[in-house]
Amino acid sequence: MFQNPQFQRMDDLSERKEPFFFLINFLVDEVRIFTKNEIQNNSLLIDFPNVTNVYNGHAIIPNFEWKSFPETLEDYQKGFEIVQENLKKGNSYLTNYTRKTEIETNLTLEDIFKFSKAKYKILVPDKFVCFSPETFIEIIDNKIFTHPMKGTIDAEIEDAENILKNDPKEKAEHYTVVDLLRNDLSMVANNVRVKDFQRIDFIKTKQKNLLAMSSEIEGEIKPQFQNKIGSILQKLLPAGSILGAPKPKTLEIILEAEKYDRGFYTGIAGYFDGKNLDSCVMIRFIEKENGKLFFKSGGGITHQSELTSEYEEMKNKIYVPIY
């Protein structure tokens, strides 16, 4: 799954300190690299904190229509039960279960890219748009940082922050992902530590406002991985926050339970500027397929997960941050 020669190309580019942008799909078998010239000459649009090839100006946000057609609880339950059965057997202790939902809107993928507000935005024309709030890894001066985001709640619920921080299922899920990513970073870094635990971020949307829980983990890149972006990514992928643990068996469970191709959804995208790296997990994702639009969303399932609340969380995440 990981023998893609593009990872060697990433190592070569980063050792030469040559900037590039990349897209990697969920199964890590499709890796696209864009050098600085290719970013400019390609129809790909990106808007990251440290690189953009668009200028939006002060365009007026249009009135937009938005309808989603989630699958029934009964259909959602089929895959959910496969996940739960494996959790009870001890095959996994956290599995990220996602679904695809047809949506209808008067906005184009380009409109959604242009008007949505998110830390990381990507448009592959006529294919997909992503507006992700979640950082995967950052590399700054040979230090590596990751910010797993696990746990969301409707911000309008009374005392929402305390409920989110203290909910046994959300806590278990968050602790598990933090532990998993701390172990992942230890493969490529020394002195790995959790720096900021259970931080709460506010996410504003037109449909509803959400609170999301994140933590920050950091380490110092081992000498053999310095200036080798491809080798680091090979070790860390797929991203633990959207897979689960342990990784190999959990991937098998996901493929059996979901029965659809995630594609670039829950893959990663990133930009290396010649010295430092910033990258995101491609969540909050709309894909065009045979002329129809599909929103892909989901969440982490533990043995404590309750069917209807997980189903509601999957539906809650079907939004665009346009306001």
Short précis:
This protein is α+β, with helices and mostly antiparallel strands and 323 residues long. The protein has helices spanning 5-15, 36-41, 73-89, 109-115, 160-166, 168-188, 229-236, 247-258, 307-316; strands at residues 20-24, 31-35, 45-48, 51-52, 66-69, 94-105, 120-124, 128-132, 135-140, 143-146, 149-154, 189-203, 210-221, 244-245, 268-272, 277-281, 285-289, 292-301.
Word description of this protein:
The chain is of the alpha+beta class and 323 residues long. Helix content is 31%, strand content 35%. The strands form two sheets. Strands 1, 2, 9, 10, 11, 12, 13, 15 and 16 form a nine-stranded antiparallel beta sheet that branches. Strands 3, 4, 5, 6, 7, 8, 14, 17 and 18 form a nine-stranded antiparallel beta sheet that branches. It is globular, with a radius of gyration of 19 Å.
Task: Determine the fraction of residues in helical runs and give it as a percent range.
Answer: 25-40%
Number of helices: 9
Structural class: alpha+beta
Largest sheet features: 9 strands, antiparallel
How confident is the prediction overall: mean pLDDT?
91
CA radius of gyration = 19 Å
In percent terms, what proportion of residues is strand? 25-35%
How does the overall form come out from the CA principal axes?
Answer: globular
Order of helices and strands: HEEHEEEHEHEEEEEHHEEHEHEEEEH
> Which parts are unreliable, with pLDDT below 50 for 5 consecutive residues or more?
none
Outline the fold blueprint:
Blueprint: H1 5-15, E1 20-24, E2 31-35, H2 36-41, E3 45-48, E4 51-52, E5 66-69, H3 73-89, E6 94-105, H4 109-115, E7 120-124, E8 128-132, E9 135-140, E10 143-146, E11 149-154, H5 160-166, H6 168-188, E12 189-203, E13 210-221, H7 229-236, E14 244-245, H8 247-258, E15 268-272, E16 277-281, E17 285-289, E18 292-301, H9 307-316
Antiparallel strand pairs: 1-2, 1-15, 3-4, 3-7, 5-6, 6-14, 6-18, 7-8, 8-17, 9-10, 9-16, 10-13, 11-13, 12-13, 15-16, 17-18
